[in-house]
TrEMBL record:
<keyword id="KW-0456">Lyase</keyword>
<dbReference type="Pfam" id="PF01791">
    <property type="entry name" value="DeoC"/>
</dbReference>
<dbReference type="GO" id="GO:0016052">
    <property type="term" value="P:carbohydrate catabolic process"/>
</dbReference>
<dbReference type="InterPro" id="IPR013785">
    <property type="entry name" value="Aldolase_TIM"/>
</dbReference>
<keyword id="KW-0704">Schiff base</keyword>
<comment type="pathway">
    <text>Carbohydrate degradation; 2-deoxy-D-ribose 1-phosphate degradation; D-glyceraldehyde 3-phosphate and acetaldehyde from 2-deoxy-alpha-D-ribose 1-phosphate: step 2/2.</text>
</comment>
<dbReference type="GO" id="GO:0005737">
    <property type="term" value="C:cytoplasm"/>
</dbReference>
<dbReference type="GO" id="GO:0009264">
    <property type="term" value="P:deoxyribonucleotide catabolic process"/>
</dbReference>
<dbReference type="GO" id="GO:0004139">
    <property type="term" value="F:deoxyribose-phosphate aldolase activity"/>
</dbReference>
<protein>
    <recommendedName>
        <fullName>Deoxyribose-phosphate aldolase</fullName>
        <ecNumber>4.1.2.4</ecNumber>
    </recommendedName>
</protein>
<dbReference type="InterPro" id="IPR002915">
    <property type="entry name" value="DeoC/FbaB/LacD_aldolase"/>
</dbReference>
<dbReference type="InterPro" id="IPR011343">
    <property type="entry name" value="DeoC"/>
</dbReference>
<comment type="similarity">
    <text>Belongs to the DeoC/FbaB aldolase family. DeoC type 2 subfamily.</text>
</comment>
Length: 307
């Protein structure tokens, strides 16, 4: 849709109310026993299994893709009465896209590429756009772009909208997730306004963080962003997805996020087309909890290597 600056100007975020509500969530009762196992399996299906390290190698990415194909052992799945579970996507740097695409051949698991000069997004503009095109050409079906934080910090909404539109166009058929890097945006109101502008410019998902900021996904930021998604749907009829990313490493955190999505946005946001976890180590903790559910014992974390 066109940039609606009146709507942007009217956006508010009541920080103390949001923080109060977020603080009340941690103490909530959570699902137990078989219900918990079922929710954890759902969480697995929503993970963008991620490796974004300077020392990534084709071997690590291939191992990660093997994990993506079979995220939970066949024995565990069988014992829980399930089969055929995969993660939502594999998320890598551009240079690893071709390796990941090859390693996932024969599956429906998409490869997501962090393009546009991730994580700072400060490389020359034409190179950022070109990187998107090259990632798509290499087989990425999802592109995680980073916005220019300076456009938010200087309130240059037209520039933010313009860059998001151009990146959206460069993605073609690929889905685009807009990473806001919320830990660098200063205020929750800025988070809300950046969320809205990215949605107006065609983002399929809004995503909190690169995982490289000092503060990554948090509950106050999540409440702010998913309420923007709700407002956007109410005003336009368009459902935009949400991806919290960075620092989500524990099964209990995943359950909290899922409960929040269900409460605030409803069941549609519990499927991979509208919700993902960006996480490099969450899967290992979920496996340990599932093992515990079945055997009463926790396995060592090193039995659940990711890549
Ligand atoms: O988008 C994904 C994040 O980079 C993953 O962050 P994490 O390593 O803290 O799970």
């Amino acid at each position: 849709m066109p940039l609606d600056l009146d709507w942007v100007a009217s956006v508010q975020a009541n920080t103390s109310a949001i923080e109060r509500r977020a603080a009340s969530l941690g103490g909530r009762r959570t699902v137990k026993k078989d219900y918990q196992a079922a929710w954890l399996l759902k969480a697995v299906s929503l993970i963008d299994l991620t490796t974004l390290s300077g020392d990534d190698t084709p071997g690590r990415v291939q191992r990660l893709c093997a994990k993506a194909r079979q995220p939970v052992s066949a024995e565990t799945l069988h014992a829980l009465g399930m089969d055929g579970l995969t993660v939502g996507a594999v998320c890598v740097y551009h240079d690893m896209v071709a390796t990941a695409v090859r390693a996932l051949e024969g599956t429906e698991i998409p490869v997501a590429a962090v393009s546009t000069g991730f994580p700072a997004g400060l490389s020359p503009w034409h190179l950022r756009v070109q990187e998107i095109r090259e990632s798509v050409a290499a087989g990425a079906r999802e592109i995680d772009i980073v916005i220019s934080r300076r456009h938010v910090l200087t309130q240059n909404w037209q520039a933010l909208y313009g860059e998001m539109r151009e990146m959206r166009d460069a993605c073609g058929e690929a889905h685009v997730k807009a990473i806001l890097a919320t830990g660098e945006l200063g205020t929750l109101r800025n988070v809300a306004r950046a969320s809205l502008i990215c949605m107006m410019a065609g983002a399929d998902f809004i995503k909190t963080s690169t995982g490289k900021e000092g503060v990554n996904a948090t509950l106050p930021v999540t409440l702010t962003m998913i309420r923007c998604i709700r407002d956007y749907q109410e005003r336009t009829g368009i459902k935009v997805g949400y991806k919290p990313a960075g620092g989500i490493a524990k099964a209990k955190d995943a359950l909290l996020y899922l409960a929040l999505m269900k409460d605030e946005l409803g069941d549609d946001w519990l499927y991979p087309d509208l919700f993902r976890f960006g996480a490099s180590s969450l899967l290992g903790d979920i496996e340990r909890q599932l093992d515990h559910h079945l055997t009463g014992h926790y396995s060592a974390a090193n039995r659940h290597a990711m890549g």
